[in-house]
Amino acid sequence: MRYTVDFYGIKRALPICPIDGGVQIAAFNMLGDNELVKVLAEEAYKKIAALDFDAIVTAECKGIAFAQEVSRLLYERKNQRFFVAARKSFKLYMNEPLSVTVRSITTGGEQTLWLSKDEADKLRGGKVIIADDVISTGGTADALRTLLGEVGAGVAAELCVFAEGAAVKRKDIIYLKYLPLFDRDGTAVEQGRQDNSEKFANRR
Predict the structure, then answer these.
(1) Do residues 43 and 36 make contact, with C-beta atoms less than 8 angstroms apart?
(2) What secondary structure, in 3-state letters, does 106-162 show?
(3) Cβ(58)–Cβ(131) under 8 Å?
């Protein structure tokens, strides 16, 4: 069973997958989809270009392609020179790393996000936008906020492709599309509003 979404004229069919508690989600993965990532980054850029911030920060791994392309646009148009990806495992290059534990809806268990000292120093005292593919429970973004707080970096906004389920009701995130949750039968459970200007194809 799949849920088809129209991304500004590009359609993708997302597989519906079960998670805990009888809830199902439409799994979204844009890694390797250059056509889609380019379009989504352009739309995201329009929403954040006027904001005051120094860098994009994301968490490994599905948000990396999105963050990279948004960051590339910011470099070309506003000379913003870098973005930072918090890693989900310790790497040998990490000198004096910072870490925080996170629980994500798609992983089902606890993970640790890591920043190397070099990455932390880039962000220290600055202002960032947290970018991700999907914001649902907000656990990953909260963990990133904790990491950023340790280096005195402020968060200008949270940016995502999808606000999933009840996350759409939040006033503190910038999102491109709404993604419902699904029941055991694959029926969409509407937990927020849909923007009528956005076209959503029927579940199939």
Answers:
(1) no
(2) CCCCEEEEEECHHHHHHHCCCEEEEEEEEECCCHHHHHHHHHHHHCCCEEEEEEEEE
(3) yes
Residue count (the chain):
204
Q: Which of the listed CATH numbers 3.40.50.2020, 3.20.20.80, 3.40.30.10, 3.30.450.20 matches domain 30-178? A: 3.40.50.2020
pTM of structure: 0.87
Which pLDDT tens digit goes with each residue over 151-203? 999 999 999 999 999 999 999 999 999 999 999 999 998 765 444 323 222 22
Helices (H), the chain: 34-48, 64-78, 117-123, 139-150
pLDDT for the residue numbered 107: 55
Continuous segment of H or E residues that includes residue 102:
strand 98-103
